Amino acid sequence: MKLRPRQDIGTIPWEPDTYGNSHLGFPLEVWRPARTCKLLIHAGIHGEEGETTFALSRALRLLSEPSPDCAVVLAANPDGLIRGTRGNARGVDLNRNFPTRDWRPDPVTHRSTLTDPSDVVLSPGSAPGSEAETTALIRLIEELKPEAVIALHAPLACIDDAKLGPLAQWLAERTGMPLVADIGYPTPGSFGSWGAERGIAVVTYEFPLTTNDALFYEHVPILVDLLAGGVSWS
Ligand SMILES: [Zn+2]
Question: How much is the pTM?
């Protein structure tokens, strides 16, 4: 696919559909593919990881036509993104709110920086799938039926896939980052566990701790290749 010239990449060239609304009422937006959805890439499920939204948006804006087979969600947690919080506006870590066998009602913790202990507390929700953003994303995936989903996160610098599947292997090779079967700590109610329990190939693509410019040069081209539909992993 021919890429747009740099002077044109200031705007997203196509309008998205709305797949629901956040708790605060912001639209949950999806840029649909031109044909059948083979892959879904979503960013910004953690509102403190705005670089994932930036990088995926840049990749989308470089395309000269809609992706043939990849759906794009730039902001899975718009309330968290506008408030700069990891969780949504109700203080829920959406990546611990999915209806999985291991979902637990206990508070969940995360690190405030890569070098700090995991001691910042959020809620996993009042019940599995209690949050509007979670249920809307589930419904979207049930409708699109992608073969695989890539969840963008930062800044752990790895490719995480419990099954070490072919898409994860391709991403590890392209990014030069390690492929891991597990992030190293429990993540009850995570999107990855939800997908695994339903036979959906979910790959967590963790950007490194770096600048937006470095992401643009090192990771946006990989996202562009995925969106352009030229990658065959199955
Ligand atoms: Zn994250």
Answer: 0.97
